[in-house]
Amino acid sequence: LVNPHHVEVQILGDKSGRVVSFPERDCSLQRRHQKLVEESPSPVVNSALRERIMSVAAQLAAAAGYRNAGTVEFLVDESGNFYFLEVNTRLQVEHPVTEAVTGLDFVREQIMLAEGCSLAVRQEEIPLRGHALECRIYAEDPANDFFPSIGKILAFEPPSGPGIRVDTGARTGDAVGVHFDPLLAKVITHGSNRSEAIQRMVRALGEFGVSGIHTTVPFCKHIIQSEIFLQAKHTTQLINQELLRGYLTLSVKPQEFAAASVAAILFARESKPRETKATATATPNGWRKRRTEYYE
What we know:
The protein has ten helices and 15 strands. The chain is an alpha+beta fold.
């Protein structure tokens, strides 16, 4: 295929054989066949194509008797034709972008379906609200062919603010070794449209302070500000071509990068609201408390 986009559809299936599908995610920006930037909806999929792709994904899962959360992946060519690629029988790393545009909690849905509950949502009720992006923050050096970066995290200050979500387990003082996946965090932004989601991501990445190791933060920021991405002309091969080449030509002096990282960390610390002590209560788990509201 010439200049394809990698597009995938989230599905959920219950014990009765009912399957629902959700608005697509575009996962075209990859390195070593691993996704780096994802967004929903895809900028190259119109409403008619979206309906067809979602319908095919749901039909495929229903025919296979699929149960619980999964993802059906496709390649979409320049003419709007789409081709089946694979089914991933799990909840994908990039599921938060679909959560952002639908308002659903897919981890919750997955657990409830595994317990034998019926689907909480009908196909015609699934919304598409605004636009969402996700950037994966890896402990890798993009300037060195994404070579793993190991060492101690001297400072780790994730961004925050309206429309910004960060999923991470990393913190200052952690050691990054060679025995585990290099994914440190996922930054997700949501906006009323693609432009607003991108603007929020640019701001979030600019405020993400990490020192001690190399990460993909500056490279992700470079990607989403590129004209190719802004005009949705990126493909599955783009990182290996123009974007990486353009990134390597950036002349950022080491001392300037270090100063910028320190400034971002200090700003993030000063901007954080002071924490207040909370007392533990015997409030029931939220999922259990509201289960009857959503499930039959």
